[in-house]
Amino acid sequence: MRKHLSPGLVLLLLFFVAAAALPFFVDPRGHLLRVAAMALLFAAMAQSWNIVGGLANQVSLGHAAFFGLGAYTSTLLFLRFGISPWIGMFAGAALAAFAAALLSFPTFRLKGHYFALATLAFAEVLRVIANSWASVTGGPVGLSIPFLGTKPELFAFRAVSSYYWIILALLVIVCLAFRLLARGAIGYRLRAVRENENAAEVAGVDTFRVKLTASIISAAFTALCGTVFAQFTFFFDPDSIFALSGISVRMAMIAIVGGLGTLGGPIIGALFLIPLEEVANAYLSSAAAGLSQFVFGAILVAAILIQPRGLMAYWPKSKAGRLARKDAKPVTPATPATEGGR
Prior knowledge:
This protein is an all-alpha fold. The protein has a single domain, classed as ABC transporter involved in vitamin B12 uptake, BtuC (Orthogonal Bundle). It contains 15 helices and two strands. Strands 1-2 form a two-stranded antiparallel sheet. It is globular and about 55 Å long. This is Amino acid ABC transporter permease. InterPro entries: ABC_transp_permease, LivM-like. The chain crosses the membrane at residues 31-52, 64-83, 89-108, 162-182, 252-276, 282-306.
């Protein structure tokens, strides 16, 4: 029997086509394309977080640690040894994966929120080290990446559109990895762990192993995003790269607002939140200090209260999927569905 694509997946493919066409219709050096590139980058970051936070239901409050490891590793290798970020980004991903394994190994053997607390503490430790070790990391002054012309091997491009293509490609890769994980054997095991970890263990699922795998993959992709962010902005410092609210919480909130554990959720969440924050900063920051963040936070809270399952709850689903869910148990915010948009 011929298998048809679901409406949600068709819309997702159309989105990628539209995103690929965008640079041909806007100024390649303009602000609009920069905002679009940042939205796509945060979508990739949120999708990376979604692997462990959505599929495995293991909340990480310090994913900025892996993000910062990717940024610092690739940048320092480039500045100190002349190693191209195209190579350094994989070194950063490997280091982040190793760090995630070290954090996950003890915490996943315990019940509770130890993983969330461990990642939060790890990000803060790295921030303090980066601020203190000025001879290597630049300290509070941060690191500036020199512009060296239009040499692709140096990851230094003149137009924003060049980075836009890299970011879009990264988002596609992360989404493909998420879909393969979610629809593969490990995805079913992760959903079993998310729904009821004790029942999954009784059924023979190695819960520790699948959670560890999700954590390592998530950290590696987050580190890749960190490298691209560093090269895109040409400057970063410890307080911004390891920031709880600026990085860790933002990527988690994008996934939650869009639809936790879904393929399209982080993309929708990023397209909703990043431009909204940009508009709030542009039009409300001059009116009063902190007003833009207050309005942005209020809208964010309202979005969560109105639709706890995220914006993916409005995503079109196939007829077969609707029929299969008619008699299904309602999904709570703590155990969101994973089939929407896939």
